[in-house]
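Service request form, structural biology core

Requester: graduate student, group of Dr. S.
Request type: structure prediction, single chain
Budget code: on file
Notes: please return the result as structure tokens.

Sequence provided:
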Amino acid sequence: MLPEMLPLALLPEVLPKPMLAVLRVVSEALPMPVLSEVLQKSTPTTTHTIITPTSTTTFDHLHHHPNVSAIHVQKLWRGQLVRQSLKQAHLCAQMIQRWWRRIFSRLQNERRVRALVTYVQPEKAAVLLQSVFRMWLARTRYKRYQKAALVIQQNWRQCCFRRYSNACLLNNMEDRGIDVNIEIIVG
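Core staff response, request fulfilled:
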């Protein structure tokens, strides 16, 4: 049995939390002797005491039973508690889902980057190898064309030099008066 004047500081040890909230609201409205009477009826266990009518023979009898209003208040309070716990569970589930989606999207992005890197590195290496090969091929062709141009230039210069030197030699011989006419008789 609880003492008649129980301090409110000891209530958390005796009553469950939902009932404490109700008693805090009720304590402001009820005088202290009525509150102590309610506290005496409550048990120090975690189970709730549910008041039910003793006889349920007729509908009229339920409405005139003195505990019908208490049953109604309990029903409303239990509904409120269930709604609050469902709302809290829903908010917790949303928070977990948000966290998981954020983690999952981060993991997907990391996988995407890793796949891109593993694809891009060989691709870059292949492109680099191809460009080096094309550069070597172009340089080889250029050197071949350059050598061909040098041969053509040398032959052309040699040909021009011979023409010029022959023309100069003939002009010099005519200037000295030497007759270069040679007759060949085959006999």
